[in-house]
Hints:
Strand content: under 5%
Low-confidence stretches: none
Radius of gyration: 31 Å
Shape: flat
Helix content: 55-70%
Number of strands: 0
Order of helices and strands: HHHH
Amino acid sequence: MAKKSRRARKKARATKSRPPAKRAPVAQPPPVAAKGPVRSETQAKKTIDFATEYRYVYADLKRIAITAAAMLAVLIILSFVIR
């Protein structure tokens, strides 16, 4: 017997009915009463010093800029040499 083609297998899979997935009920958090300006930890953490968080990015950008400047200089020098 010959092996079934991909098209036939795909068609057979598409025609099979799949049972619907059961969803678990989502737990609702209890309501919180507003008592005025309360400072939570998430608000306190919003003051992030990006210079310390992304100091490696500055090093990478510096390295890319030096490489780009060197390549541009090589292109300019080669344009004078080829003429």
